[in-house]
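Re: [ENG-882] Designed sequences occasionally contain unexpected residues at chain ends

Forwarding the minimal case from QA. Structure tokens:
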């Protein structure tokens, strides 16, 4: 379906055309009419399917024909990177519409606090905020939400995983009961439905392509010892000189700086993205990565929530994520919009059960490989016993040989 078939405001259609938005994605095609009709909504779709546009576009349509001297819409997100990303998309899509928006998040300077305080008090049309920083403003009496008509929780599953349930509850208490509430999530665990019962009214539901990687992703798992990981990553990157955008995920922020340091020693253009960086430094790293001025970005899962970048050639999992859903989210950063991409996961002995769970979730097998001969053998893959947990079935490593990081 084309956006011109959705009966949207003409100025918004112009902005969509200007940004080369022609065809609605499945989540947009399903969600936009429901939102325009005023229903509450729970929407579940994998990353990269256009979820942001699915709620931003109908909200801007409604605002295009309204008096706009108050805060109409509150969008709550788990990370500052995602807040900035959504605010930027709102600004782009509202190019021909007089709509104001502001991202509110922590880590800035004193002038940022004053700007946020004024916007909240005077009524910026759309506020995009992280829970903690917004709650700080609420406690200081800076908020004027008496006319809010729309509450949107984006990446709702991640916010609950990060422990924001109390903050969300406090924020909702500040909003009018007569509002439209939209929840968007990559997954739909029971705790999401429990939250929906407390803040929504008879919500419609959409569930599209849950926990399935894009068809264009070539998935490979390489069996590695821990000391082999960096040499193997360096080899993979040197073999793919044509890849100008590579994303490496690590489960711990301490690993990010270590990986970046070793890649730089190998004369590879790499930057890290973790909560150890100041906010302005994180934004600068993302800008350079988007502009292809940095070839390799190393990030944690939490930081990845603001990385909405097209044409990422390759995703490398330095270690397998504990949550199978995070695997889908990680590799969903490549092969977007029907393009091709490559995802490589490095698996040590203890990660094997994690891959079993991932394969069970995505309902397909990931190709397993041994390292190149120059690195020596990695641990052997073992299949999961039918009906078993895999415990007590560990094979011993082959003789461990130390390999330098070249």
């Amino acid at each position: 379906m084309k956006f011109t078939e959705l009966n949207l405001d003409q100025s918004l259609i112009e902005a969509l055309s200007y940004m080369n938005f022609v065809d609605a994605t499945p989540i947009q095609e399903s969600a936009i009419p429901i939102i325009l009709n005023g229903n509450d909504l729970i929407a579940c779709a994998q990353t990269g399917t256009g979820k942001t546009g699915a709620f931003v576009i109908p909200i801007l349509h409604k605002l295009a024909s309204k008096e706009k001297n108050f805060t109409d819409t509150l969008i709550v997100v788990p990370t500052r990177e995602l807040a900035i990303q959504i605010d930027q998309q709102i600004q782009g899509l509202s190019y021909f519409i007089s709509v104001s928006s502001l991202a509110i998040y922590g880590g800035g300077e004193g002038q940022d606090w004053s700007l946020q305080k004024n916007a909240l008090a005077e009524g910026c049309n759309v506020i995009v905020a992280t829970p903690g920083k917004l709650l700080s403003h609420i406690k200081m009496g800076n908020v004027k939400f008496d006319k809010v008509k729309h509450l949107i929780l984006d990446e709702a599953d991640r916010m609950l995983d990060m422990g924001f349930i109390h903050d969300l509850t406090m924020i909702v208490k500040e909003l009018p009961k007569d509002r439209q509430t939209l929840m968007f999530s990559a997954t739909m665990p029971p705790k999401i439905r429990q939250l929906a019962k407390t803040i929504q009214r008879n919500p419609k539901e959409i569930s599209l392509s849950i926990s399935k990687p894009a068809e264009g992703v070539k998935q490979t798992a390489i069996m590695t010892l821990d000391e082999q990981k960096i040499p193997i990553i360096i080899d993979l990157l040197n073999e793919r000189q044509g890849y100008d955008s590579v994303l490496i995920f690590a489960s711990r922020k301490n690993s990010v700086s270590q990986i970046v340091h070793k890649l730089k020693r190998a004369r590879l253009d790499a930057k890290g993205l973790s909560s150890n960086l100041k906010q302005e430094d994180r934004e600068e790293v993302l800008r350079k990565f988007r502009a292809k001025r940095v070839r390799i970005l190393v990030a944690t899962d939490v930081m990845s929530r603001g990385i909405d970048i097209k044409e990422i050639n390759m995703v490398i999992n330095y270690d397998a994520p504990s949550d199978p859903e995070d695997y889908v989210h990680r590799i969903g950063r490549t092969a977007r919009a029907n393009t091709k991409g490559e995802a490589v996961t490095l698996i040590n002995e203890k990660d094997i059960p994690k891959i079993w769970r991932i394969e069970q979730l995505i309902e397909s097998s990931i190709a397993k490989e041994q390292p190149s001969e120059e690195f020596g053998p990695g641990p052997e893959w073992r299949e999961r016993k039918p009906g078993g947990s895999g415990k007590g079935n560990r094979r011993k490593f082959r003789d461990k040989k130390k390999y330098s990081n070249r």
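QA comment: On inspection the terminal residues look reasonable. The longest strand covers residues 217-223. Proposing we downgrade this to a documentation issue.
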